[in-house]
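Question: Send over one sample?
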Amino acid sequence: MIILVTATLCRFILTLKVFTAPLVLLAESNRGDSSKKKKIVLTTLKLYRVEISIRLDEEAENA
């Protein structure tokens, strides 16, 4: 039971980091040359989307 709660908590924290990292990049992109930084933010968002879909596929296969 404790292991299940710990695993769920770790997954939740990881999910928060995944979703907040692009927001941090977006906030930092408002300073300086915005065109290059916006491209970095969009690329990062696409990578996170791919990573999340891969994780969901793996979890669906394991279930």
Observations:
- Helices lie at 2-29, 34-62.
- The radius of gyration is 15 Å.
- The CA atoms of residues 2 and 55 lie 23 Å apart.
- Residues 34-62 form the longest helix (29 residues).
